[in-house]
Amino acid sequence: MREALFIKQNTEKWKAYETNKPTDPDELAAAFIAITDDLAYAKTFFPQSNTTKYLNGLASTFHQDIYKNQKEKSNRFAAFWRYELPLLFFQHRRQLLYSLIFFAVFTCMGVLSAKYDNHFVRLILGDDYVNMTNDNIAKGDPFGVYKSSSSGLMFLQIAINNVYVELRFFVMGLFFSVGSLYASLMNGVMLGSFQYYFFSKGLGIQSILVIWIHGTLEMSSFIVAGGAGLVLGNSLLFPKTYTRLQSLKKGALEGLKITVGLIPIILLAAFFESFVTRHTEMPVWLGIIILASSLLFMIWYVILYPAKLNKNLNYINTDH
To answer: What does the CA dihedral 54, 58, 63, 69 come to, rounded to 10 degrees?
Structure first.
């Protein structure tokens, strides 16, 4: 994007920030994040321009208001998850929705394939896993796999593996978005066949109440990571008013922020899988509370809260 077009697109917003600075802490922080995003772009593409100097000064005044009498490092760290990451969720909500739809379709494909092909579950999950689970079912402990090693070691292994899977969802987006859809296909088909396997054994509801204690956060994080991959791939495919390189840099940065921001949720899912899911004897109501709380948290943090933040930001731009 040329500097003149960049200025034209944002002048009114900057003037509104400058002349009617928000007093509400949430609105002030949201405005600060928007300004620093513009400043980062200006520093990248017009580093010596007056636009960069102007935005730097504007950001400084907001920074002083937000961080005065506060500890800077801890607040900047918290501001990322409180404001910046949710606003990225809203900005790229279409990519997140597409990722969810594709993942749901691929999961249904896994269910149908497992239903109509007796060998499909073994093909996807492997003979060793299926034989082991059949043995556990025969012994009356169908989810014994979650008790097969110590909690600490299991947490370490699962956390490393799931962060790797999440990063792969994102990085594969570089292959024109098709790579992220391929990762979604692999994981969705595996989930569908895995879930069908337990339903075919008469353990469907029980499997949901046990496995989705950790699976809710885990799978939803993978879906969001798939959306981050689409942000990356689409930035290469559809640069709009940017040059292709500028668009790719922007998409890579925003997709990476989304991916990194999900890591605490991935770690929490690994904690549940290692320390909580193994307690299959726990009361049903407790499992339901954990599962429902995880689902509601993801809906709130990825959909509802970002929409509220964006609404507040629009209010600053239009009414002040």
So the answer is: 120
Interior/surface letters 43-56, b for 16+ CB within 10 angstroms, e for the rest: eebbeeeebbeebe
pTM confidence score: 0.77
pLDDT digits (tens, 9 = 90+) for 177-198: 999 999 999 999 999 999 999 9
Instruction: Let me know: does 107 contact 223? Beta carbons within 8 Å.
Output: no
> Which of 8-12, 185-189, 265-269, 296-300 has the least mean pLDDT?
8-12
The amino acid at residue 319 is: D
Three-state secondary structure of the chain: CCHHHHHHHHHHHHHHHHHCCCCCHHHHHHHHHHHHHHHHHHHHHCCCCHHHHHHHHHHHHHHHHHHCCCCHHHHHHHHHHHHHHHHHHHHCHHHHHHHHHHHHHHHHHHHHHHHHCCCHHHHHHCHHHHHHHHHHHHCCCCCHHHHCCCHHHHHHHHHHHHHHHHHHHHHHHHCCCHHHHHHHHHHHHHHHHHHHHHHHCCCHHHHHHHHHHHHHHHHHHHHHHHHHHHHHHHHHHCCCCCCHHHHHHHHHHHHHHHHHHCHHHHHHHHHHHHHHCCCCCCCHHHHHHHHHHHHHHHHHHHHHHHHHHHHHHHHHHHHC
The mean per-residue pLDDT over the stretch 56-68 comes to 73
**CA dihedral of residues 174, 175, 180, 181 (deg, nearest 10):** 150
Give, to the nearest 10 degrees, the angle between helix 50-67 and helix 72-79.
Answer: 110
Convert the pLDDT of each residue in 113-126 to its tens digit.
Answer: 999 998 999 999 99
